[in-house]
Amino acid sequence: MKYAVVTGTSKGLGASIARLLMEASVNVIGLARSKNQALENADLPGSYQHYQVDLANIEQTEKTFFKIINFLKEQPIDSLQLVQNAALVSPIEQVGKQTTEQLTSHVHVNLLAPMVITNLWLEAWRDRDIPLVLVNITSGAAKRSVYGWNAYGSTKAGLDRYTDTVALEQEKLETNNKIFLFDPSIMDTDMQGEIRSADPSQFVDVEQFKNYKTEDKLRNTDVVANVLVKRLLNESSIKNGDYYSVKDVF
Ligand SMILES: NC(=O)c1ccc[n+]([C@@H]2O[C@H](COP(=O)([O-])OP(=O)(O)OC[C@H]3O[C@@H](n4cnc5c(N)ncnc54)[C@H](OP(=O)(O)O)[C@@H]3O)[C@@H](O)[C@H]2O)c1
């Protein structure tokens, strides 16, 4: 059986990835703070199981993954994928005007949780003969500085370096595991709504992002998810350590 664990499935890109995988007979385990009733009620070839978790809470995240791993260890698995998609963009604010709580949550969700989860994941499956596929969702913000996105750019850049390093280790260890990055570019999601609602004093490029919406430049999440899911369904096409972007396709 094919299984995929996807973080951030309550809405946006994660919800689209989960549904497209389920349509392709992959059983999805989704995580987010809120539920996704549409996925839970969906009558598709692949099943959906939801775990409510706040990824900012690392202890809760660890406990949740222990439960997921224990469940999966009882299943007959021939394909196991992990899609780390959940993230937040806030705080959108210049440095010097943020709270420590905002920064802690941000770094926990965007960087520490993916690191803790990857570590548990590789340990859990080390002695099993299942080649793993892991994908981390990145952003163009990892590679360029944006006024007000100091936290977001830093955690996405950290995630990029982390993913590259894990890829290097897995290659040297000859595990056959593959980990890669996927850049979805700009999409029409709540995250973009939050970006547009920032004050120009917090985010100087806010007008440009408002124009992306009015000029219909934001991609639909189903279209973007389809690009990633096509690759996930063709595991032999995945290159360990790859940087894959929706812009490579269109
Ligand atoms: N939208 C864009 O234009 C864009 C561009 C480049 C990269 N990206 C990246 O694409 C990915 C998906 O973004 P999106 O636009 O789909 O975002 P979104 O619509 O805001 O959805 C974010 C998802 O992450 C989950 N999440 C956030 N905080 C969480 C927490 N503390 N605990 C558990 N789950 C949490 C949310 O679930 P709950 O709120 O229910 O917890 C939700 O399911 C992210 O990695 C983002 O950085 C987006």
UniProtKB/TrEMBL annotation:
Keywords, ordered alphabetically: Cytoplasm, NADP, Oxidoreductase
GO cellular component, one term: cytoplasm
Source taxon at top rank: Bacteria
Family in the record: Belongs to the short-chain dehydrogenases/reductases (SDR) family.
PANTHER family in alphabetical order: SEPIAPTERIN REDUCTASE
Xref: SUPFAM superfamilies: NAD(P)-binding Rossmann-fold domains (SSF51735)
Protein name: Benzil reductase ((S)-benzoin forming)
Keyword Cytoplasm: yes
Keyword Oxidoreductase: yes
Molecular-function GO term, any one: sepiapterin reductase (NADP+) activity
Gene Ontology biological process: tetrahydrobiopterin biosynthetic process
Main localization, broad class: cytoplasm
Compartments where found: Cytoplasm
